Amino acid sequence: QVQLVESGGGLVQPGGSLRLSCAASGTIFSINDMGWYRQAPGKQRELVAGISSGGNTNYAGSVKGRFTISRDNAKKMAYLQMNSLKPEDTAVYYCQAKVYRVRGDRLYDYWGQGTQVTVSS
What we know:
Helix content is 0%, strand content 57%. By secondary structure, the chain is mainly beta. It is elongated, with a radius of gyration of 14 Å. The relative contact order is 0.33.
């Protein structure tokens, strides 16, 4: 019913930048919280950045000051601007959204398919 599609991943050198995008589509009344998660091989998935419907943000300590999460409610999109990238940022990045499909109903949690970010020289 709801799909999240990430884009913008790729290979970048240390110190470089990438901007990830997440597009939501389908049966959506409104989108509550959105977030970006990442998972590296052999590691647990971790929250990188989150943003509320009102624009409040939070970040993992490892990316604070380097990454910026934002959203465009009219376009039903979220973004993750990643600057000063480090090799340890290498991971599959996933978009997550909590969605009201119908007014007055409960929230549903959705995930994108992920996009690979590789930071290497």
